[in-house]
Amino acid sequence: MAPLIAQMKEIFELEQIAESDVLRDYDLWDSLSVISLLAFIDSEWGVTLDAEDITEVNTVGDLWKFIETHIANRTQ
Amino acid sequence: MTVLGHVLVTGSSSGIGMALAQQISRHQPVILHGRDSTRLKIALDGCVSGPHVVWQHDLLCLHGTRDSLKTLLSENGIFIDKFVHCAAQTSVSASRLITSNSMVETMSVNFFSALDITSCLLSKRINQNALTNILFLSSIWGQFGQKGHTMYCASKGALESAMRSLAVELAPKVRVNCLALGAVDSPMASRALSNPEIKKKVTVDYPLGIGSIEQAVEVCMFLLSQTSSWITGQVLTADGGRTAHMSNKF
User: Fold this and answer.
1) I need a labelling partner for B215 at 20 to 30 A (CA). Which of A27, A67, B130, B203 fits?
2) Residues A32, B93: C-beta atoms closer than 8 Å
3) Any idea what the CATH number is for the domain that residue A27 is in?
């Protein structure tokens, strides 16, 4: 989860990112920052997600769980 | 009988590059370039049989390109008379997140490698003065703005500028042109087009709809053929009318 947090600090220009943060509450949460986040997830874990896939994802912790599920599905 | 030169197609392990290499293979030997040997093998299997050659090389490795190409030509005893640069990479990101690494990567694959290969093929010692035609695949986004694509757009703009200077410098022996494509239903675009919302918007933006790989290949074949013998230094646009479409969209 550490690489995700580190990258999210860059993307959303924040000092702290907590697991309980609600994604949509970030000031810089917009279509381009979402695409940038998805591009990072793809290059880091080989998990290809579309913006639509994460509309249901609420918090940072949920996002990490979502990524983990995809990693697990991929390696099966 | 004249010995036919090869046509080098970079990025021919998928999409437009692969379809183009396979089409050319019906008339002339090709050099299929790509990074992945498995995918290159598949691309080669789709070619009409001939003395085709595979060049596995990563264009990110900027300093190795020239030596690798030189070795390929001398080991196979071949020369190149037409060069098509299809290889390109795109990464979407907000401009405030562009890194120096991603800048160098995009420019290396999309632009520097095209000039590096061109320069190499103009060497008489390496390529026997055989080069007659250069085609750089560009994009309508080389001339227009697109959110999140700053580096990709810049790399295509650079290709188009370089193309004009090359055309002037190398005439009359070598013709040099760009093909600026709009959205083509290729692997590069498939991810974006798999989103129904984007697909719907694109359909409205393109009076003739999005292009097929076959349509893109047809225009490449025109620019590579004698039919276009008086055309050099041009960016030819094939975009289904996208850049002509300025009316309000309903």
Assistant:
1) B130
2) yes
3) 1.10.1200.10
